[in-house]
Amino acid sequence: MAYKFHFGNRPLPILANGLGLLLLALYLAFGSEACSAVAAKPTDTRPKQRPNLVATTSNFVVRSYDGGPDAAEIAQVCETLRPQIQNKWLGKVSADSWKPTCGIVLHATKGSYLRAVGPGAGQTSGSSLINQQSGRIVSRRIDVLVDQHGRTTALPHELTHIVLADYFPGKQPPAWFDEGIATLADSEEKLARHNRDCCHAVHTGTAFPLIELLTLDNLSSAEQFPAFYGQSVSLVRFLAERDEPTKILPFVKLGIETGYAEALRTSYGIESVGQLQRLWLNNVLALQAR
Ligand SMILES: [Zn+2]
Asked: Is 232:176 a contact under the CB 8 Å cutoff?
């Protein structure tokens, strides 16, 4: 069985937050609201405001559910995250709003989530989907399974996929790059696990040679997922730290057009994929030794 990457049903269970400190703060605020409700004075009989089930902003339409997160607050979180992601990876914030807007659907149950994104996404809590026609994006959508604490921690990862899709009109970005860069938006805990997976793959000889990873769009078995994600996020981080993070998008675009050997020379002064392999591996081992 081949495991094909595509925008929907990304196979990684997704937690988030590297980019989203503000998001985290807002979620903590949600939590403290719940706590303060418990601690509220008995004399406070003001009617509680019902959360918004639907909210529309310049770039997002968020749909929540009865008892779910407030759609307006989630939309505002996304409006804050979108320029942060653009600024970090594109080096500028787009003055244009998305047309079409990005639909965000929050799900209360795994059943509802899987009905929306497909049964193959059982290990995930977030999924993004872009539809393109004639090189133009005609729909953007994110589905998020809300956790038992009311958190939507998959959002920064999924929103990264959606934001960066603007840079690849008519194409899907390479899988290593697309997942590696989105995974950098996950929580530190999640990233530590990916790092362990990467080191494990290196030490057991199960790591993908980078020449293979760079062009990979199918995995032959589910056992390859830990190495794939671990190496992808490690490689994106290595490149993003070698130079300005904004260099990585032009590098990948050039890699698609001319091949990675030429792109490495132009963007990073690295002579070949073989040299990249040595530099990246040394970096992995050095980080592990710390
Ligand atoms: Zn992803």
From this structure: yes
